[in-house]
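User: Second chain of the day. Same drill as before.
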Amino acid sequence: MAFPNLPGKQAADPLVTPAQHSEYRHAESETGRTRLPEAVVLCYSRGLMDYLTETHDGQHVGNYYGDLYSFSDADYAVGVLGNFGIGAPTTAMLMDELVADGVETFLSVGFAGCLDDTIDMGDFIVCDKAIRDEGTSHHYAAPEKFAHASESLTDETIRLLRDRDERFHIGPSWTIDAMYRETKREVERYADEGILTVEMEASAVFTVAAHRGVDAASMFVVSDYLGPADWEPKFHLTGEDMQHLGDTAKAVLENGVA
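Assistant: Same format as last time:
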């Protein structure tokens, strides 16, 4: 059976558009429309969201699922969206709504499991492409193995990391919806192919951005290791690394809107 079930649906018009939902949402809001940032960090970690909003002055804006916060030291042109959960479906929905309201750039950041045990815990990964092993992206684009990050934003991310002499790696990720169905056979296969990480959002983020004509890139912190025989979690040791990742993503987007 082909996926999605209806072949060719990617070219069909949707019943409800993000713009229509945006009009309804803002019309029903007590505050109406507010100024939105041009560029947004997509944040899946509650701890990181708390850190960014408590450390950097700014304001909560918009009428969205989760929390959208814009930074005053970036003249409110850069923000962070968090507290909406994890995974591709909600991320894609929120990207669609933000694009309809004028957001043009997204930098997705979070933890990732690592398939390469030569990479140190806490290192940054810049994801240049991601295997589309989730369902959401296939409703936006015809099937192919990889979704690709925006080249210009990825280059800007790499440039800043090199200027700061950060420890990072560039490579592909494996995006999957079902974290408890990551199998030994898959881990072995993708590790042999040179896939560096596994996570739950990147391929959908890249596909939605391409579909909507905006820019998107992604960075991760290595938080655990997946080998063919075992799993080695290190989440509890990477809190400061995640905070540093968030600050770095903010700086990347500030450079882009400066």
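The mean pLDDT is 92.

User: Great, on to the next one.
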